[in-house]
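User: Predict the complex.
Assistant: Input components as received:
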Amino acid sequence: MSKVGIFDSGLGGLTVARAIARRFPASNLIYLGDTARLPYGAKSEEAVTRYAVRCVRYLVELGAETIVVACNTASACALPTLQATYGKTRVLGVIEPGARAAVAATTSGAIGVIGTERTVSSRGYHNAIAALAPDARVTALATPVLVPLVETGWIDHPVTRLTIETYLQELHSAAPGIDTLVLGCTHYPVLRTLLTELTTAIFGRTVHLVDSAEAIAEALAPALMGLRSGDRQGGLGERHFAVTDLPASFAKVAATFWPETLPPVEAVDLTMD
Amino acid sequence: MSKVGIFDSGLGGLTVARAIARRFPASNLIYLGDTARLPYGAKSEEAVTRYAVRCVRYLVELGAETIVVACNTASACALPTLQATYGKTRVLGVIEPGARAAVAATTSGAIGVIGTERTVSSRGYHNAIAALAPDARVTALATPVLVPLVETGWIDHPVTRLTIETYLQELHSAAPGIDTLVLGCTHYPVLRTLLTELTTAIFGRTVHLVDSAEAIAEALAPALMGLRSGDRQGGLGERHFAVTDLPASFAKVAATFWPETLPPVEAVDLTMD
């Protein structure tokens, strides 16, 4: 039975796990959130790579045959190292599928990307989009305040609205022709309602929002073929959730993301050894 | 020559280091910022204690005779463990000095505390203030969005103003009689101008703001007696700065905090061993 390991710095990757579970209900999923070391977004490439390598080793030890790096920052920094160890087909990041979806969606060829400082400075989306569509113009903006706003639960809040306005106005000044915006961090889809309203207001047109969760589920189709409608009676594969710190907080917030009853969240110690 | 080790999760403790350097110029200071694992504020007590123990061991190995835990979260979580290992007089936290300054400043007996989630949930300020003034009424509020706003450099920014207004209105609803507010996180003194303006507007009186940096420098007087005006020609002790990630970013921001030229910032690997 195919086992998929999904790794994120914290909670955000649950949107990815949910998209996979919805599309391939019979797949067995192991989710790992590195909550002891989050957030990754403002740390160095070396530190993020070190953490990602440790986390992926844990998933492999538990039997994951396919690994999804659901964190954009970790995808941007650590994917080459991880793929060198485990093979290119076995470890998937979120950036390439997101870039593919953006290229498919844009008409103007002007694509915006918002993400953490490290994701933006890595130029991961620039490179992935350029490989698919050399003529596309990519404008990326680091929006580091959004993750703490989501984590504090200020989803539909005046502070979050003003923060998004500030960032989108900066993006609009740099590239007014954007018709597609990549949500380059797994936390951002939670802000979709505000982002839809404010991109329309500030860019004066409907801006297509790209959420990599759906894109990565699509990219898994070759590996998970046949698990679409369930291999077994009942149809649902196993679900296993683990975090490196604060399992109770994780379980509480995860319950709002996850439609079925969440199994107990395990606390694992992945301090470097 | 007395050597003081100052430890914080990141940059914030530089306000403490600077207060010590100003008061005792001839003291030798070693500063360690655990930037690989920051922020501490939303992590578990166990994780924060584990990190603090590792960081303090590093400072002791470098010869620090007195240790200042400049991080409020680490002071709230890890001080008993650290003092059990190194002795009560050798390891000082920021909470007790801050509580002492708040009790000295209040007239109404109503004291507010703002800090990270972990600092507030630990009830460290409640306990420290109760030990000094059993009749004082303490109201503490977690204000987790402020640290990322400071770190992103939005010091005098509409988003920061609206965030502080939101938090202070919540604090005012809970305890309108507050006349003293403890800035229970080393990042907050950077927001002093906005905090002064908005506490006055919302509470309708001058609210005394307690910054633990000055309080901790005062608490060090017995250990650093004689270093006030300089023991040696020239008068300045040694300064040593180290971080666990991103030394270049640290040096850049630290330069705005530190009046003299900063010596090179060392990167140290304190992964758990």
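Chain A touches chain B at residues 35-37, 42-44, 46-47, 50, 144-145, 147-149, 151-152, 154, 157-159, 162-163, 166, 245-246, 271-273 (CB under 8 Å).
Let me know if you want any component modeled separately.
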